[in-house]
Structure of ABC transporter ATP-binding protein:
Amino acid sequence: MSSEELPTAGVKQTWRVVRDCGRDQAGAAWVAAVCLVLSSASVLVVPLLVGRIVDIVTGSGDRGLLGPAAFGALVMTAVGAVLAAVGAGLTARVCENALGRLRERALAAVVALPLPTVERLGRGTVLSRTVGDVGVASDVARGALPAFLSALLTLLVTCGGLLALDWRLALAGALPLPVWVAATRGYLRRSGPQYAHERTAEARLSQFLLTGISGARTLRALCLEDAHTAVIKERSEAWSAAALRTCVTRVRFSLHLNGAELLGLLAVLVTGSALVRSGSLSLGAASTAVLLLMRVFEPVGTLLYLLDEVQSASAALARLAGVVTERTGDAERGENAERGEDAEDAVRSGRELPSDGGLTVRGLEFGYADGAPAVQDVTFRVEPGERVAVVGPSGAGKSTVVGLVTGVHTPWRGSVTVGGVPIGRLHPRATGLVTQESHVFAGSVRDNLSIARPDADEPAMTAALAQVGALDWALELPEGLETVVGPGGEALSPARRQQLALARLVLADPPLAVLDEPTAESYGGDRSAMRTAVDAALKGRTGIVIAHRLSDARAADRILVLDEGRVAAFGTHEQLLRDGGLYAELWSTWTAPRDAAGRTGRAGWTGWTGR
């Protein structure tokens, strides 16, 4: 995977992924194919009947057959339309079902990507893959693909009909083929990369638009609106230029197609007239040949005009398949979690459930893109069932250590084991992470809880809510657990969002739980309730808690003090105060009297979070 983009699959990989996603649709696909073939065959029958009618009218046929021929033409037209509609509907259904599974697999792979990778790529790129590309492929599946397949079959059947009438007419009708082939080859050679470039440019624009919307307040505060707008303008112009290039290529392609159609029609008219005058061909047969050729123009035009949509859909499918076929250890881990593996499955797949939540960290070293180590030589041990608070000034490495412990980051050096199992082989259900800003998914309270454990019944959910003190307010919602919360639903306070996240943790029941400042967004009485909820959620499991408030850290069994990416001290609150050092200074600053402006009257740690 490049540093700027998710991978794009090749043709074989894309076909393999799409085939796997549509494997259970084989029966419907065969029925759709039969309907489209029969519909295309009707295209051949109708011109033959019209030719027969011409012969009858001109006196070279049995007039008694005029009525049946006319009725047959009408019936075959209707039958062809019905078969085409059924074939198109079934084709769209097969494709939509396959795309639905492809979207699920792509989303599962994206969710399983390491968080630093997702952050580096940006939400615009991820959304472009899982929403924009699926939308493009879906539009083609519903409309363009059935028309494309029908046109291809019609072309083959019609060419066979021309050859059956007279080889010379078929040869005249084939004159446009070299033009079509040359124009199509040139178009495909140019349009493929152009569509891929257009999709990438759109993703880059979407990413910057999303960044501007989510960070609008920051942009205003720093007076960066003009600079951000300038970048949006630049990326919009790049996307417009890419779209214009594909449009120009498409217009040139259409001019070649129209010229080829004119050449073919003139050739058949001249050849047919010569054959009729020489008596080698009836007027009805010549009329049939002209009608067949004109019937060819429409499917060929459809076939070739739709190439741009098929090209765009192919590029979208390749981007989706690229996400699905990216098989990093993290992606496999995410898929295993989604399948809900038990302990035996986890061992078979190389992922193990630990015997307990005991955490051992030895000699960790890790850094970010700038190359400088963010943490160095970090070593500590957390006993099973013990709660450890991680404290330190801003930039001390607290979040980095948590990322290494939970497997979000891969250390440069050192090791992390939970219950004796290395973090790289650890089953994803062995650890639980609750972030500072807990996310509420769009859906009901029940939906938000079932994410942690899909098989949880209502008693288990209500027990989890009750354990963290959230059952009363959850049942008081307008529709109880069925109340829609999150975007577009019932708004929840920060404390309630955090309680919901802690209830998910209780349902998931991991032996090791990691909490990133769980009381950060709670105030007054809510803070006391949150502390009680945290205590309840961590009961019986090992807990790692990032604590910006030293009053929260004091409640832990032991405290890990970090400073400049290293372990400064590790012990109980009382031990650390007796030993002096950084923690004693931080505690002294924390508990010092403050004036009206919140100043302590002594030099403190400038990066420390206030009370």
Observations:
- The CA atoms of residues 321 and 334 lie 17 Å apart.
- The domain at 11-331 is CATH 1.20.1560.10 (ABC transporter transmembrane region fold).
- The mean pLDDT is 77.
